[in-house]
Amino acid sequence: MVVRNKSIGVFDSGFGGLGVLRGIIKVLPEYDYVYLGDTSRAPYGHRNTEDVYKFSQEAVDFLFSKQCELIVFGCNTASSNALHVIQHTYLPAHFPDRKVLGVLIPFSEEAVNRTRNKKVGVMATEATVRSQTFVRELAKLDPTVSVYQQACPLLVPFIEAGEETSAPAREALRSYLAPLIEEHIDTLILGCTHYGLIKKEIQEIVGVSVSLVSEENVVPPRLRRYLEAHPEIESKLTKNGSRRFYTTDTTGRFQTLGGRFFGEEIAAETVSL
Known about the structure:
Blueprint lengths: L6 E6 L4 H11 L5 E5 L11 H17 L2 E6 L2 H6 L1 H12 L4 E3 L2 H11 L4 E6 L1 H6 L1 H9 L4 E6 L3 H6 L6 H16 L4 E5 L7 H8 L4 E3 L1 H15 L1 H4 L8 E5 L3 H12 L5 E3 L3
Parallel strand pairs: 1-2, 1-3, 2-9, 3-4, 5-6, 5-7, 7-8, 9-10
């Protein structure tokens, strides 16, 4: 009898979620993981809400077909524009025994805990900023916190082209961060998985007095606590330490760029959603 791995799925529109997965594996190395990057349709940042929901639903279906018991949305755009409907409408109707988790609430809680002057910045994709989800979540936790958002549409293309340290990329980054610095924020949410790759550059511009909230630091401990609090889910997960990677684009490109985010070479399979 073939026993299939019961895995934790990680979904991102592109490559950035591999950095999140890397952080999760450091904290929870024993579990089996399946990663899906919808790289052929990335980035999601300029997409409308209907498209983001459709793509996210397709990703959920795919990962559940690969025996994932639990899925983490690394993609902030998907978390902002699709997660609520998937959790409260789609899963109860189609996968009532499965779970999908996002990053918005953990991010918001971390930012509220860190801020001292009640001024929080958010740098993210256009779709995430447009959704106003971070503004709403932070207001729920602390209505006295002021939130300053900045869409950064040029950063993902620079990063995926390997040009994140070029002069044009640095100039774009400085221009995006300038309005947030002028508001004297003391906490900055990196609201896109790609931004973890330029965390050093961001910190240099905003200064050491600004605390950066990024997924690779927030998601892993939160996931560990979630599994500890939900033994009915944790007990289903197999622990063989396996990792499987899927992309909707060419595997060569995915493996080259993905290796930068994951921190080691990866082998991926191309799939259609």
